[in-house]
Amino acid sequence: MLHEVQNKQDQKSTNYVEPVYARKDFGSGLPKFELGEEGLNADAAYDLVHDELMLDGNARLNLATFVTTWMEPQAEKLMSESFDKNLIDKDEYPAATRIEERCINIISKLYNAPETGIGASGIGSSEAVMLAGMALKWRWKQRMEDAGKSTAKPNLILGSNVQVVWEKFCRYWEVEPRYINMAPGRYTINGEEVMKQVDENTIGVVAILGVTYTGAYEPVKEVHDALMAHKEKTGQEVPLHVDAASGGFIAPFLQPDLEWDFRLPLVKSINVSGHKYGLVYPGIGWVVWRSKEDLPDDLIFHVNYLGGDFPTFTLNFSRPANQVIAQYYNFVRLGRKGYTDVQRNSQQVAMYLSGKIAEMDDFELLSDGSDTPVFAFRSVDETALSVYDVSDRLREKGWLVPAYTMPEDVQDMSVLRIVVREGLSHDLAEALIEDLVWAVEKCKAGQQVQGKTSDANAETVGKLKC
User: Fold this and answer.
1) Which of 119, 178, 306, 449 could form a disulfide with 197 if both were Cys (CB 3.0 to 4.6 A apart)?
2) Which domain covers residue 31, as residue numbers?
3) pTM for this predicted structure
4) Do 314 and 354 reside in the same domain of the chain?
5) Is residue 377 very low, low, confident or very high in pLDDT (cuts 50, 70, 90)?
6) Which segments of 163-201 are extended strands (E)?
């Protein structure tokens, strides 16, 4: 009798058990490309999305991205408190508007602008680049119209090493891109190559402070001086835009004497990514101009249906204010000394890594992290050691180190690139070197095995290679 009662209790317990994870919500698949007939409860929906995102790589170990992957908890709290504020609603959110204006002034002064506060924020440097390019084209168009000349064929001079957003700008705004191709041993533009392309239809020249491929600075002053000599000789002023997406929050702190900014009179505009070495989560970018004269009035719209009359120069309209607020938090929190300390630490880690890699017989450095904390290196013998295989092996250890080909005219060269950001400690750097040595050994062992394998097993071993 007692045994029968116990069985009934066990059966009741089994029937009414509530699994901790395997809820009925997960009993069958959910449609991925259309809405389901019914929704899930909040916890189930969270778990479903959260678990799928676990398949992504670890952002802190992602050495491919320039984008910030760590911020202080206080900054994250401020961001979460302002997700719901639409930055374009300037009359409704005057405090956020004031903070945006302060950030623009801070950046203008950081870059030694003679007039401060002439700028805009954007989703990232991609939007900032579009705004700067539009200003270049409008100013050139006005100059040509004043001279009674055609405005049909504008061109922009830039290196083949530019980020793809510049290609987008030229295509979308119908500007001829005049690319300066790279050459073996030269992975930046220079003054001599720029002057081969300049004519009266040139709306401007783009120089990069932190090339995406290698992290190195382009010689901005050399390009500027060549353009200045051209102006003195011909009377034609060709403006210079500096794409400082990566280096704009590095050079003022680590190389303060480097002349690249508004100290050079032909530098008319600068863009920088707050979500890179500005140390803010994505996405926030900034563009500042030398003076009001360099930002044509025709590009500025006045919005008055949100409660006041506010000038705006953006491609995007609605977006959250939280990234701007996070940028201001960093400016207040870190100050000049704090930014210097953070960036110097990143540079020291980058130099440590590049130094260790330079000691390895298998690799050759293209840059060493002494400009931005970014460097690239290649295999001494690609037939013996493929950088793509090394990248795959490092992924097994959790590291995301990209392998890619260089730009036109040096595209036969494949490289690995490491981006050091805040959050990559010296201890993690030591672990990376250990894993890189392991990856090289594994790749070499795979090739040796393949070379000694019989024809019957060659196909199988080939699939296992690195």
Assistant:
1) 178
2) 2-55
3) 0.89
4) no
5) very high
6) 176-180
